[in-house]
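Worked example 3 (structure in, sequence out).
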């Protein structure tokens, strides 16, 4: 009987072998695999949801917090949405084989670049079973083999979803071994996986700060990390108040447990007396707890229905992942920019303003993967950006930034056409 390490290595070698054929697999076969996956997610909905219920009940009994339970939970509506996202990826252009930057040099050489898959991608992720589908379909579309290693809290859900992907892909003609799922939840396997640079070309972690730190510090191959989102929305003195209330409400409340939800609201002092009571009243209806600096408290403390807490230093730069928001009143755009530079995570930041100059300063000077003018940070999402889905949101600057779609899972090689040229 194979040991867990031997089984992992066998699956990795199979993925490596499959990746060579994946590199030149036809668009037709790849899209057929995605159509099959979408159909099978709906056809096997009861089986998938039953597996997810096992995980959910075990996690709930173990004391998992509400934010993580929300990430773990699948519902018929969420499965419908996942299946729809798969079709959106199928509808995207196939990036593999694209030739770009072609030109002719003075010596007659024709030189350009051709887009190619990365090879074998390892995904290590926590809690969210939809990641099993998102990463698999994006890797299939971009011609990569994938090794999936989810967390033990979602093992039944991930196993059911991975079977759907494997069977659907095989029926379409995808090479055997292109999608591998590590059933064993022993954490020592992660350490072994991170040393397999001879097989795995890229590791993508999806989860909390602890997981991302572990992988970034121990992986022997490149890592695309991110997903920690300390997201600010700054309300400029010229903001349209109604627009600013609607945007901040959406950014905080629409789904508070995700990385692109609002964490800190920065409000210009000139508009704070008018704006803060309005947004606070709306947030209160949704049960938002507000951690306010002294100036914000002085404006809001006369409203007894609000959940107000004096802000501490720990509230700035904190990713709440819940119905909690920090509020700070600032005297200028410069002060807002300085606060974001100090406490932001490089994920998603927004300004609400009716003036061109502050909007452009914000877009130019804020160093983040996604910077918004007059829109909710909740749009930082592969599907919302027209990418179909995403394997994660990178807050790095190499090799890709922001939501990672099919094109971000490719590299390129130089192609050169000659007619007998030799270097003098």
């Amino acid at each position: 009987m194979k040991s867990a390490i031997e089984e992992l290595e066998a699956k990795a070698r199979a993925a490596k072998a499959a990746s060579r054929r994946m590199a030149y697999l036809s668009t037709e076969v790849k899209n057929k695999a995605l159509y099959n996956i979408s159909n099978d997610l709906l056809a096997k909905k009861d089986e998938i949801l039953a597996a997810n219920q096992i995980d959910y009940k075990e996690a709930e009994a173990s004391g998992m917090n509400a934010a993580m339970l929300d990430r773990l939970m699948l519902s018929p509506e969420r499965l419908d949405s996942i299946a729809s996202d798969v079709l959106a990826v199928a509808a995207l252009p196939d990036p593999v084989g694209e030739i770009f930057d072609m030109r002719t040099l003075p010596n007659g050489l024709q030189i350009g670049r051709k887009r190619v898959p990365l090879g074998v991608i390892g995904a290590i992720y926590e809690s969210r079973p939809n990641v099993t589908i998102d990463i698999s379909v994006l890797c299939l579309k971009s011609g990569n083999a994938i090794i999936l290693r989810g967390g033990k809290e979602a093992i039944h859900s991930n196993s059911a979803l991975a079977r759907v992907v494997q069977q659907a892909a095989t029926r379409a003609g995808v090479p055997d071994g292109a999608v591998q799922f590590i059933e064993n939840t022993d954490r020592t396997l992660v350490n072994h996986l991170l040393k397999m640079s001879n097989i795995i070309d890229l590791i993508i972690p999806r989860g909390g700060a602890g997981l991302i730190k572990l992988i970034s510090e121990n992986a022997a191959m490149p890592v695309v990390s991110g997903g920690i989102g300390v997201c600010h929305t700054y309300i400029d003195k010229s903001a349209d108040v109604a627009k600013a209330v609607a945007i901040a409400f959406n950014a905080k409340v629409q789904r508070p447990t995700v990385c692109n939800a609002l964490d800190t609201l920065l409000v210009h002092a000139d508009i704070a007396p008018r704006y803060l009571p309005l947004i606070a009243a709306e947030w209160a209806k949704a049960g938002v707890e507000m951690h306010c600096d002294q100036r914000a408290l002085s404006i809001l403390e006369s409203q007894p229905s609000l959940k107000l807490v004096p802000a501490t230093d720990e509230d700035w730069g904190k990713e709440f992942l819940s119905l909690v928001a920090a509020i700070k009143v600032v005297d200028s755009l410069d002060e807002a920019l300085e606060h974001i530079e100090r406490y932001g995570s490089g994920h998603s930041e927004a300004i609400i303003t009716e003036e061109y100059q502050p909007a452009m300063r914000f877009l130019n000077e804020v160093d983040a993967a996604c910077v918004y003018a007059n829109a909710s940070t909740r749009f930082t999402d592969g599907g919302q950006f027209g990418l179909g889905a995403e394997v994660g949101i990178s807050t790095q600057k190499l090799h890709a930034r922001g939501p990672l779609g099919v094109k971000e899972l490719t590299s390129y090689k130089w192609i050169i056409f000659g007619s007998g040229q030799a270097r003098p």
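Notes: The two ends are 60 Å apart (CA to CA). The first helix runs from residue 4 to 22.
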